[in-house]
Amino acid sequence: MSLLGVRDLRLQYGPTLIQEGIDFDIEPGTIYAVMGGSGCGKSTLLKCLIGLLEPAAGQVLYREQDYWASNEATRNQLRADIGVLFQSAALWSSMTVLENVMLPLQVQDTLPKDQHEARALEALEWVGMAEARDRLPADLSGGMKKRVGLARAIVARPHLLFLDEPSAGLDPISSVKLDRLILDIRERTEAAIVIVTHELPSIYALADDGIFLDADLKRPIAHGKPTQMRDTVMHPTVQAFMRRQEIDTL
Length: 250
Hints:
Number of helices: 10
Distance between the termini: 45 Å
Strand content: 15-25%
Strand order of the largest sheet: 6-7-8-3-9-10
Order of helices and strands: EEEHEEHEHHHEHEHEEHHH
Radius of gyration: 18 Å
Shape: globular
Structural class: alpha/beta
């Protein structure tokens, strides 16, 4: 049984079609990349998968349960097993690092309150940010904010993590460190990870599988391991995207 299944998903804003015909399955422990150029609908798909945007048609299945066909109580249960790192990290500016990371535990209320701080500190230790526990987000660099956001995403031990452009805005060294951290988190938690990104080094370093969305056709045009897409999918849009580092050096 797959952890996440997407069936014939159609995404729209009003009458405007964004993407259609999206189908894939994600198994536990898999890192799955959602790829494509700007404006292809990657972020829209992410919003649908995490419960922020209802699809025009199709299904989003968590352990075979249809999220969008469920009642609110069931949706809340399903959401409790999801962690999200937003592109901006989305930390609350008035809260300390520790308070930000404890927030999911307080909202879900599934762990005794006297264990919240210890669990949050453990998550911060995993991402190398425990010493910043009392600092405010304004005092952190971009890379540090991403690490704190990642700690908050994993603190409730979800089985499914969504990472929205995790390397965006980071210098190459910080990006490589974050990639290694994501692999370490996968190893520690055995969570499945969905990563939305256009960063080629991260795609090749992290992804076991993936989907490529096309902005012109408004549907997926490739599935599979990124290196397999690069080497076997001859569609010019896929080739231009997957080989752009090689093109840049010519």
